[in-house]
Amino acid sequence: xxxxxxxxxxxxxxxxxxxxxxxxxxxxxxxxxxxxxxxxxxxxxxxxxxxxxxxxxxxxxxxxxxxxxxxxxxxxxxxxxxxxxxxxxxxxxxxxxxxxxxxxxxxxxxxxxxxxxxxxxxxxxxxxxxxxxxxxxxxxxxxxxxxxxxxxxxxxxxxxxxxxxxxxxxxxxxxxxxxxxxxxxxxxxxxxxxxxxxxxxxxxxxxxxxxxxxxxxxxxxxxxxxxxxxxxxxxxxxxxxxxxxxxxxxxxxxxxxxxxxxxxxxxxxxxxxxxxxxxxxxxxxx
Length: 286
Hints:
Structural class: alpha/beta
Shape: globular
Largest sheet: 4 strands, parallel
Mean pLDDT: 96
Low-confidence stretches: none
Keywords: Oxidoreductase
CATH class of the largest domain: Alpha Beta
InterPro entries: Cys_rich_dom, HdrB/HdrD_reductase
Organism: Desulfofundulus thermobenzoicus
CATH architecture of the largest domain: 3-Layer(aba) Sandwich
GO molecular function: oxidoreductase activity
Pfam families: CCG
């Protein structure tokens, strides 16, 4: 099965491990991601001003191009997913947005592209039962906390991904892989996002709260879908440990890297060496 794929900017630079592990893990399960030709940045954030139509143009162009290819589009970055889903929703529900974006781009697009996240592919296209069989219990005994952050699940009416406060799709994936889910109350708490560029102290405290919440409940690893969340949760651990010797570090992986490890994809194809806190000692074959 081939499906058009929008990787986004970060996956071609800092988050190559997310890109590589997404492509390879899905390919191992019979899903080939075909990169959308001549794509551009999605815009990174959905515009807050309702009449900022230019802030939606890039995402609208991507969605329109995908409609011409297959009618479906896969993206894994939480920010990209959020922006594309919300722009598509605006095109379908706001006549003014629909008219202005179509006029500017000189297209006839009505929001028909079906945007899919790889978590949805694993669940609905591949099937968690198939994934469980292929993984063969490779991750038995590993205790994993799932971190969604803000962008993947909110705002619920526009994104329509999972429950905005208590999503479970990532936990279902972890269970299918044979690992043990660690429940904790901060899986949709914001990590501080781009504030890391402005106020390191604020973000460091938020990250510390999230990490401690997971580790005190027994988590040995955290998984996420967001490149910025992964960076904040991973990179800041060295700073936290430098200030507090009692702090317990924990590897923060992309969920597709965990899938790849369970499917015995070679670790060099998963980008595991790119992490600040090395996850390889926890994973089979790594």
